[in-house]
Design goal:
The chain has 356 residues and is α+β, with helices and mostly antiparallel strands. It folds into two domains: 115 residues, no CATH class; 208 residues. The chain is 27% helix and 44% strand. Strands 3-4-5-8-11-13-14-15 form an eight-stranded antiparallel beta barrel. Helix 1 runs antiparallel to helix 2. The chain is elongated.
């Protein structure tokens, strides 16, 4: 029995020893097959890149940026470059295959689908590839024609109210003390394919509209009415504010500077005249009043966050004009400030808008 057991152990060791080289050969053959597939992938990738480059050259020619002779020269140059890219990259892969056949050594964890080969190719971070880069992940490809741009919107200025039957000079609110502030984010999309003369400008904004009553007045709600009344103490400050979440949409007009390279087309509005006409709609998300006064020798600050019968739904007209990023801005609420008011009041603002 012992002899039989010893015989089986020896046989098992011999079988394992025979299998180890075979496994090494299988792994090496698998790696070689992966590298051969990588060669085909390189050819297909370069051909697809050439196809896209030729399409972009044709677009530039159709748009009048190139004549036929210039386009043919660029196409021949592109074809030559991609052919040389294929040739050089295949040499590197063949050298890897020769190394594998000769030594059987190559990183077992190497992901063949993520080998990047380049000769001075610039990456997104500004680095350049000379040779082979492994495990690089997906490479960012810059879009040729960027049709939509985005920007931060900040607006600030004077705020007041237009009251039915009265002029702005008769307003019960302080002209210099009543202000507004707006903070938002907007997208600007070119309307037409080959010109940036007309754009849609749309986004989302928070608007904060403030009113400071003249004299010693403050807002009081009585049932469904909100009106100004005189405060019982001498007010140092009386301020009423409406906070809105709105979605502005403007049709924007104006020239732009076109910047064209072999790889990109961009439109710049820097130092260019702009005119935007449109409006906004949204919701009132809060109304509050702040009072500061002295009572019995004590300084008092009261803050009230109430409904004040303000409209829940806000909408209006707005426009801006100017040069570059700094613009004159005006907006007017078509909805009355207060519901069921005996005399309607409409918020109006004038200030500066900055597209950053």
């Amino acid at each position: 029995m012992r002899t039989l057991t010893l015989y089986l152990v020896v046989l098992l060791v011999l079988l394992c020893a025979e299998n180890l080289p075979a496994q090494d050969v299988d792994v090496r053959n698998y790696k070689i097959e992966e590298l051969e597939r990588k060669k085909e992938a390189i050819k297909n990738s370069e051909r697809e890149a050439l196809k896209l480059e030729v399409e972009q050259i044709n677009k530039r020619m159709d748009n009048g940026g190139l004549n036929r002779e210039e386009a043919d020269i660029l196409k021949r140059k592109a074809a030559d470059n991609h052919a040389r890219n294929i040739e050089n990259k295949l040499v590197i892969i063949d050298n890897y295959i020769d190394l594998l056949k000769r030594n059987g050594e190559l990183d077992l964890n190497m992901d063949m689908e993520r080998i990047v080969i380049g000769f001075g190719a610039e990456e997104e971070g500004g680095d350049k590839i000379f040779g082979v880069k492994v495990n690089s992940g997906n490479q960012h490809k810059e879009k040729y024609d960027l049709r939509t741009y985005s920007s931060l919107i900040i607006a600030v200025g004077l705020n007041n109210a237009l009251i039915d039957g009265e002029s702005l000079q008769d307003t019960p609110y302080k002209v210099g003390g009543s202000r507004f502030f707006e903070l938002g984010y907007a997208w600007r999309t070119r309307v037409f394919k080959n010109t940036n003369l007309v754009r849609f400008n749309y986004g989302v904004s928070f608007q904060f509209n403030g009113l400071k009553p003249k004299g010693n007045n403050y807002f009081v709600s009585s049932g469904d009415q909100t009106m100004l009344e005189e405060f019982e103490y001498d007010l140092d400050k009386s301020k009423f504010r409406m906070d809105n979440l709105v979605f502005p949409v403007h049709l924007e007009f104006g020239p732009s500077r076109k910047k064209t390279t072999d790889k990109t087309i961009r439109y710049s509005l820097h130092k260019q005249f702009r005119l935007g006409l449109g409006g906004y709609a949204g919701f009132n998300i809060g109304s509050r009043q702040k009072l500061k006064y002295n009572r019995d020798g004590n300084r008092v600050k009261d803050k009230f966050k109430r409904d004040y019968n303000t409209n829940d739904f806000v909408y209006g007209l707005s426009a801006y004009t100017g040069v570059g990023e700094a613009l004159i801005y005006v907006k007017y609420d078509l909805n009355p400030i207060f519901n069921n008011a005996l005399v309607e009041q409409h918020n109006i603002s004038l200030g500066l808008r900055f597209d950053l």
